[in-house]
Amino acid sequence: MIVYFLRHGIAEPQGASGDSARKLTSEGRAGLERLAKATKFWPDLILSSPYLRALETANLLNEKLGWGAPMVKAAALKPSSSPEALWDEIRVHPVASILVVSHEPLLSSTIAWVLGSTREVVDFQPGTLAALAIPPSNPPLGQLLWMIQPGMLL
Q: Which residue stretches of the chain are H helix?
């Protein structure tokens, strides 16, 4: 399975509505639009954190790239979740490719865990996208295929 891990775009600061209600900023939307122009991949399914900025990120890419991919909101993609819970959520979907839209520190810790590392090995800034080939084993042991950080798309 190919799993694309995407951290949501740049979001507004936390306000009175709390962390889960933070929206993407115009800068965050612009960065995601640059990412959409620079990438050509087609996920069979989108898994998104239920937090607003992640949902906005998933919807923006789904629309801009014309995927029409089904989207599932999953509590296992909240920032406080664990790599094991995220992997359990991914594994229940029998698809060839999946886009996971989530948060830090969950994404970098999940990628480290999938790559067999005991420490974080990637810097997941907002709008960063990474592709991993992961066999359906448990625990997983994957391979990093590529990674795009926002600074690469100027």
A: 26-38, 52-64, 83-91, 106-114
